[in-house]
Amino acid sequence: MNEAQIRKDLNLNLLLSMSRLSDIGRPEALQGLGLDRRQIRRIRRLRPEQFQKVLFALAQVLEIKIEVTSESLDAALALADLDHRDREAVLELFQAGAPTRLMVDLYGLQRSDCAAIRRYFGCPGRKGRPESVLSEA
After folding, report:
1. pLDDT, tens digit, for every residue of 12-70?
2. Whole-structure pTM over 0.90, yes or no?
3. Shortest CA distance to 15 belongs to which of 48, 38, 65, 4?
4. Could you say which DSSP state residue 130 is in?
5. What does each C-alpha distance from 108 to 100, 103, 112, 134 come to in angstroms?
6. In the chain, N or C terminus with fewer CB closer than 10 Å?
7. Residue 136 DSSP code
8. pLDDT digit string (tens) for 83-100?
9. Residues 23, 48 contacting (CB under 8 angstroms)
């Protein structure tokens, strides 16, 4: 799948989501995306055969940029492995400065997962090895 096909799929999913939101009466969600009431009404009235025309036009004017950083993906994957209650506890512990060894023992996280979660959520933690007193002498 090339980049053009990915963009086309994203545009289609975006348009379908906007259509669903307008159908179920969630205009505030669409307004949060920057659509006005007139646009929401027009999307609600689209017929299936009009979708392709709108998709073509969207491809010409819509710029979607998705950036997934390695760090954010690692943090998300580590948290996804935990159940809901554990996820909240893990974040609270990290924010309180819990040591990596504790998190590894309690939740089975990898050391690299702990570092990724700390960096991504801005939690306190060690900044690496402390400088040696001897190196200054």
Report:
1. 888 888 888 887 877 888 888 888 889 888 888 888 888 778 877 877 766 666 677 88
2. no
3. 48
4. P
5. 10, 7, 12, 36
6. C
7. G
8. 877 888 898 999 999 999
9. no
